[in-house]
User: Fold these one by one.
Assistant:
Number 1:
Amino acid sequence: MRKLFLIAAVFTASACASPKDRIAEGLTGYGVAEAPAQCVGAQLQRSLSLGQLQELGRVASATRARDPDPSRLTIDDFLRAASEVRDPRIAIEVAKAAGRCNLSPLGFAPAKYEMDDA
C-alpha cells in the first residue's frame, strides 16, 4: 500500500510541474545540459500557449519514435519536430529559444568570412 502511495505522489507531482519544468526535464533526459534545458523551457513557456506546447510534445514524441536512436534527442531533432507542427509560430519560437539559450544545431556551422585589410 505504501508503495502505491509513493507512485501516486510521484505522478501527482509531475502532473503539477510547470510547462517549463516538464520541457527542461524532457530535454535533460535526452542529453541536453541542465542550464540550456531550463532556458529553453522558460522561453517556450513564455512564448507559446499550453495547447501549442502540447502539440509540440505530441509531434516530438512521434518524431522520437521514428528516430533510429530514440534514447537521444538532439537540438536538430527538436527543431525538426517543431517544423512538422502545423502552427508555424511553434517552429519559430523553438528556433528562437534554441538561439537564445546557445543551443546551435549540430549541422550548423557559422560561415567564416575573410576580410581584406585594404
Note: Residues 50-66 form the longest helix (17 residues).
Number 2:
Amino acid sequence: MRDVSVSVCPVPPEQRPVNEYQELQESWFFSWVTLEWHRYLKKLAWVWAWSWLVWGPVAAASFPPQKAIVPFLVSGGAGASLMVLLVVIRLYLGWFYVRSRLTSASICYEESGWYDGQTWEKTPEILAQDRLILSYQVEPLLKRLRRTLYGLGLLLLVDGLVWMCL
C-alpha cells in the first residue's frame, strides 16, 4: 500500500484506515481469517479442542461420562462451540471496524489524546483506494466470517435438537 503523505493527510499513521487494515492483516490472531480455508478451519478446530479443557470438566460434573456419555459429549461440545463462537465474533468485530473506517468518507482521529478529536475528509483518490481494498480484501473476509457464524449457529441448533431428543 502506498503511504499517504502528511501534507495530504493529517491523520497520524497508526490511525489511517489503510494502516489499520495492514496491522490487522499482519496480526497473529486477526490474520487467521486470511489463511486458506482448511488452515482457517484447523485454527478454529484447535480452539474447539482446547476449549474442552474448560468445558469437559464442567460437562463431567453435570453428566458423568461413565453413566451418560451422550449428554456429556453434547453439553461439552456445545460449551466448546460457544468458545469458538466468541472467537469468531471477535474476529468479525475487528474486521468490521476496519471495514467501517475504509468505507467512511471522513476519518475521526485523535492527535494526542481523547480530548482533541478531529475529522478529516478523505480525498477522492484515497477514498477510491480504501474502497478498492474494502471490495477486494476485506469484504471476502467478512463473508467468510459470516459463513462461519452461520455454520456455528447451525451446529448449535443441531446440538440443541439432539439435546431435546435425549
Note: The CA atoms of residues 56 and 76 lie 5 Å apart.
Number 3:
Amino acid sequence: MVNSSSTNTPGYRVEIEHNGDVHYYIAPRVGTISLNGVGQQSSSNSGTNGAAKLSGETTKNLYHHIKQCEPFNKLTIETCAKSVSFGLSLKLTYNGQTTPDLTYPTNNTHLANLAKVANSVISELKI
C-alpha cells in the first residue's frame, strides 16, 4: 500500500504479509521555511522504518477484499479534481497488479469495500 503524500502529510509505504506482519516506511516530511525572507526547502534527513502486526480480522478482511477486486486492471473509477497541494493518492499493489487510486469515489462495491479496509489498516497501524 502506498500513500503518495501531500503538502501537510508525509507519504508512506506499507507491506503486509498474509500472517499480518507489517513493515512500513514513512517518508521524511518536506516543507518550506523562510530564511531571511527567502523560501527554502527543508526536510529531515531520513524517514521512519518500522514493523507492526495487524489483527487477524483486519488481515483476513484485507485479503478477502483484494481477491474480490482482482484483476485490478478491470477496475474503473470516476476521476475527480484534486488539490495540487493537499491531494494524495492511495494505491494497493498485489501480485504485480496495482489498484486505481483508492481515494477517488467509486460505484464499484468491491473497490469501495477495499478502500474502507485500506483505511482501517492505516487506522489500526496509527499511520
Note: The longest strand covers residues 21-26.
Number 4:
Amino acid sequence: MKGQEWYQATDIAQEYDDKRFSQGGRLIDRREKEAVLDAIGPVEDKKILEIACGTGRFTAMLAERGADIVGLDISAEMLGEARTKADAAGVGETIEFMRGDAGRLPFEDDEFDAVIAMRFFHLADTPAEYLAEIKRVSNGDVMFDTFKNTSTRSIYNWALPMGSRLYSRSEVHSLIKGAGLELVGDSHDFVLPYGFYRSLPNSLANVFRRVDTTIGKSPIGDSIASVSYWHASV
C-alpha cells in the first residue's frame, strides 16, 4: 500500500479528521456517509466489515444504526482515534476494532452481509487482489470509492503525501467483473476537488457546493467528477 509510514504516524491520526472534515470538509463527510447508507442501508442487525476504517467515521455511524460491525485498519494510531470516537458516541462496546492487512483478511468466506472500503482503493497497489479478498468475505453488498483519472485531481495528484491511484470507469468495471461481483449502481460527485472545500469556511463551502452540484447534474458532470462511489454485490 502507498504511504503506509505517513498514514501510520501518530500526529497524522490525531489531526486526520480536523484537517479533512472540519469547515468545508463537513460537506465531504456528509456526502460520503450518504453514499455508504444509500448502498447498504438499512443496516440494523447486519454484520458489516469496514476495511481501512481509519478514525471510525463510518464505523461509529453504522453502529449507531444497529449494525454488528468490525472495523479493520493497518494503523494502530488510527484505531486508537476510532475507539475514542466510538466511545464518545456511546457505541464503543458494540464495535470490534482489529489491526490487520486488507490483503489477508482474517475472516471466513461469506462472513459478512456487507463490506465497505472508503478512501482505500486510491492507495491500493494491487486493487484486483484486494477486491477479490473483499468479495471472498462478503455474502452480499460491497461498497467502495475511487478517484477518477479525468478529474482535476489528476493535475495535482503527484503532490499529495501518499499519492493516489486514479481510475477510469472502464477499469473499475473490469475490476468488479474480475472479482466475480455484479455492479449494482454507481454515482459520481465533486467537480471541485476535496482540497478546495477543506480550505473554506463551512458557510462559503455551501455556496460552492451548490454550484458544484449543478455542474454535476449536467451532461458533462459524471465525466469531470473527481470521486466515484461504487455499489456491487456477490
Note: The chain has a mean pLDDT of 91.
